[in-house]
Specification:
The protein is of the alpha+beta class. It is built from eight helices and eleven strands. The protein has two domains: about 1-150, Hotdog Thioesterase (Thiol Ester Dehydrase, Chain A); about 160-295, Thiol Ester Dehydrase, Chain A.
Length: about 300
């Protein structure tokens, strides 16, 4: 964590005098899932995933990928200030469910850079491999905020497709998020970013209170959506059949301050493009905290 705090990036880039170039770097970690069974169980309890399915929640792998990404961000050739990077979007493409007795290799590398009105956007790409088989791909988009940039030869970041939560057909019961949630998730994930732990530590970084981890919110939202989308399968503790691939897209739109209360609004099979759409929201907040789209191809 300290190396992240003190990674100041390339001064020529952060001062707007040079175009950012991401290093060609890959970090990998091989994990026998049976060796981390306790961690997976704790994670499933934290995000309300059915243990009886005997498959690992897709977002557990994204959680582990974030640890690899932290090592990428600490690399001296990484051009942006590591402190203050904002995780704004995340896509998981799952080709099959991953059993809890398999061995996987998680490999993360830098993707591309886009221009953005608030600085630069860049991607980090992760592959989850079972032997030679790629079973999952994860793409994370991060915002490096800068007031002065050079956008020559950079494509503008594509505008996300934000759908209307007012059309939602199903509403979940309100979810209470305790003030201790950040510390509980940190023990499971290893992500001890101070903005998630205590009100006073979050205030050091300009926030009024500490906030929920975005990837916890995504995982919890997917658990809610999956139980609605595949109610019969989950009732019988059977992993749903995937025809080809499952794509889980999330836009992180607002911070959720702790303690807090949210609700999930969702609609099933809203279009030919999406199998389901879910929003994490609150009745007193006009803009959703998170939008998740589920596509089955």
């Amino acid at each position: 964590m300290l190396r992240l705090l003190f990674h100041s990036g390339d001064k020529a880039v952060t001062s707007g005098k040079a175009l950012p170039v991401l290093p060609s770097l890959e970090i990998a970690n091989t994990i026998a899932l049976s060796d981390v069974a306790d961690n997976i169980y704790q994670y499933h309890c934290c995000v309300d995933w059915s243990v009886g399915l005997n498959v690992v929640h897709p977002c557990w792998f994204a959680m582990r990928a974030i640890a690899l990404q932290a090592d990428l961000f600490k690399d001296k050739a990484q051009p942006f200030k590591a402190l203050g990077l904002v995780h704004v979007a995340n896509r998981i493409t799952l080709y099959r469910w991953i059993r809890s007795d398999e061995t996987v290799t998680i490999k993360s590398r830098f993707g591309q850079v886009w221009s953005h009105k608030r600085g630069y956007m860049f991607s980090v790409l992760t592959d989850v491999m079972c032997g030679e088989e790629c079973v999952m791909e994860i793409e994370a988009h991060n915002l490096a905020r800068q007031s002065v940039t050079i956008d020559t030869d950079l494509s503008p970041y594509p505008k996300p497709d934000i759908l209307c939560a007012g059309n939602a057909q199903i509403y979940s019961q309100p979810l209470y998020l305790p003030g201790e949630l950040g510390k509980v998730y940190a023990k499971i994930s290893g992500d001890y970013n101070p903005i998630h732990l205590y009100p006073f530590s979050a205030k050091l970084f300009g926030l009024k209170r500490h906030i929920a981890h975005g990837m916890w919110t995504k995982a919890k939202a997917f658990s809610v959506l999956a139980k609605q989308r595949w109610e019969n399968d989950f009732t019988h503790h059977t992993p749903p059949t995937l025809p080809n691939q499952l794509q889980i897209d999330v836009q992180f739109m607002q911070m959720i301050f702790l303690p807090g209360q949210v609700e999930c609004k969702l609609t099933i099979k809203p279009s030919a493009t999406h199998s389901a759409v879910l929003w994490v929201t609150h009745q007193d907040v006009p803009k959703p905290y998170l939008q998740m789209t589920l596509s089955i191809k």
